[in-house]
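Troubleshooting log. The previous run stalled partway through. Resubmitting the same two chains, unchanged.
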Amino acid sequence: MPPRTLFQKVWDAHVIEQLPGDNALLAIDRIIAIEITTPQPAAEIKERFGDRYFDLSSIVAIIDHVSPAKDTETAVQGQALRTWAKEKGVVFYDIGNNGICHVVTPERGWVEPGITLICGDSHTCTHGAFGAYALGIGSSVQCGAMLAGAIIQKRPKVIRINVSGKLLPSATAKDLALTVIATLGFQGGTGAVLEYHGTAIQALSMEERMTLCNMAIEAGASTGIVEPDETTIEYLRGREAQPKGEAFESKAAHWRTLRADPDAVYDKTIDIDGSAIRTMVSWGTNPGESVSIDARVPDGDAASLEYMGLRAGTPMRGIEIDQAFIGSCTNARISDLRAAAEIFKGRKVSVPTIVTPGSQAVKRQAEREGLHDIFQDAGALWTHSSCGPCLGMSMGVVAPGMRIISSTNRNFRNRMGTGGRVHLATPVVVAASAILGRIATPDELPAEVPA
Amino acid sequence: MIVAGSVIALNQENLDTDQMYPGKYLSLITRKGLGHLLFEAFPRGHELLEKNPGASIFVTGENVGCGSSREHAVWALADWGIRAVIAPSFARIFHENCYSNGVVPVVLTDKAALDECFSAKTLEIDVDDEIIRKDGREIAHFELDPLRKDFILHGGFLEYMNTKVDVVRAWRAAALSSRA
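Second attempt completed without errors. Output:
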């Protein structure tokens, strides 16, 4: 057999048969069913296919986007998922025990190396951090997978992203993600999987790998994927959905074999020097429109500049903001909150600031560590877990014209509220900016005020 | 199958699904009757809809449908009356969602032909023969995925998946026994 990429090994292990037009029938191991995109396919299966499912044990249901309900529509939606999950007997995370599906699924151990996983949410690429083929899909494809245990796909191309060297202490996985997108372009990954390699990737924690893979879709890529290693195995050991003892060790032994062959051929290779990664911030209306925080607003797309209310040449540092948000499937895991808390400690925010943990488990851990006190002492609003304002659904959307610095993944027009202007950044940049009321890095902050 | 009708042209790259269907309406659990929410938070798009009632073909720029996987965007387009989208490139999930809902996704990279589409009042898309005509004149060929084209012409993406259940079960059983 010719040498293969990691992605190709996972793909090949799931091809059931070839179909016309270069398509493959691809077996799906795990379906994450969320309240936003599951009621429609569930109704379809009931009405048209006698309520027959391929394998209910492959499904994990999570109340995810709006938690708890904020109005009648979201109450109906949550109840639709709840009733369905209980009736079908699928694993279900209800409010109180839930969070953002891309945080809950890994922390409970439902994703693992070598599997195929789908969810009706574009940020499903997050799970590629584990060496899984993880794909965001629409409700119809989810319906087909619930019915037949498979999807139809053309094999994507594979772009190797080599990140050599070592990230500086000031550079985070989010900065790396934004650099990859700015390098490839917002559409540069279309039709491809981004396979991350290199010493800087190997050095990332699982939470950092999730942040990196989370934004693969923002380069248009189908997903991202990272080789599983001891970091992956140690993360999964002891998680709720994983077996214990010998059974786990035998799975881990298989995971260790999931590596790209040394001579594997890629459709394209991008080399990035890890030590050259700088703190990034977005200026425009898609994540590809990002620059180093030390740069000036570029002479970019006129419509983006107009929407954002920015002039080319203005230094990114110093742009005044109206609100700050730390949350989302990109940057609301415990390590993100710890990093932000370091900045908030002993300081006060100067603009409305919301900190929303990625899951209820993250919330409880943060509170055990006293992080909630640090956020609240600083004057930030500490909430329960939800997608919140990231996609403009609840809990802190902005008004037209308001400028928000956010640890989320999309700075699209109207995304976090109609007319809202979003700057994407890392949790520590969001925290420093919240304190100073303008786009800033932690090194600009005056020394900590003694308590 | 012929999709013929008047055209809505929005010459913009990266028209994401948040613009087509705002996140705040993702709380609706139906797939029907969402047309009135199309472009609801996107003034330019909304004006175009008002100026072009009854249009059935939507022409736009590169990377249409990027961002969120929400199939609501295609449900809203289809419910409003759009039966085909013409663009130089499609984001992956949106592309698939178009096929799943019988909205013809026409990838048209030829710049001159695309310009003709942008300036057209009406167009005719011959789905069977994969040809676009303007004023009775052939202006471009395009290619559909043969398998998914069949879903558009004869419906039945889910019916097709349903025919695969036994194949997938047999494959699963074989995979399990080879592991044991």
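Takeaways: Chain A is about 30% helix and 20% strand. Chain A has two domains: 6-271, 282-444.
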